[in-house]
Specification:
Length: about 150
């Protein structure tokens, strides 16, 4: 058992149960010491392939905790179809998020000329793509834009 990350005195399981099924039959399972789903899918699929000698063609997950660029790349590189929500999926569907003028996803974006326009009408020009490494070691590209008139 471990204390909840919010520090509210609740105890949470210090493990995570992963089960892979097909047509109602359990094809693989694992009990792992990581309570989050984000780092459990790849090891589960590797164990399943070792045990059964084959990998599934389609992966369907029950929660957004599995969704990440790393997971999608992993599944695509192995020829698997992913039906996996990403972490922000539910939040992006909300009216609040869709109407938030400071949410960069809602800004005017000119891909051809490589700039975005903020709610104050200022252009942000694309400057570079930097490589960042996630906690698990996966590398992603992060685009950097800079405003021409704001500090």
């Amino acid at each position: 058992m471990q204390e909840d990350h919010r520090g509210n005195g609740q105890l949470k399981p210090g493990y995570n149960v992963q089960i892979g099924t097909e047509k109602g039959f359990v094809r693989g399972y694992a009990v792992v010491p990581n309570p989050a789903d984000s780092r459990t899918l790849k090891p589960q699929l590797r164990r399943q392939k070792q045990g059964l000698g084959e990998q599934p063609n389609v992966i369907i997950t029950d929660a957004a905790g599995y969704g990440s660029e790393e997971t999608y790349g992993y599944l695509e590189n192995r020829g698997m179809v992913a039906v996996v929500k990403y972490g922000m999926y539910r939040k992006e569907q909300s009216r609040k998020m869709k109407e938030d003028r400071w949410n960069t996803e809602n800004w005017e974006n000119n891909r051809k000329e490589q700039y975005s326009v903020c709610p104050k009408g200022k252009r942000l020009r694309y400057r570079e793509t930097r490589e960042q490494r996630r906690d698990a070691g996966y590398k992603i590209g992060v685009d950097r834009y800079e405003c021409e008139r704001c500090k």
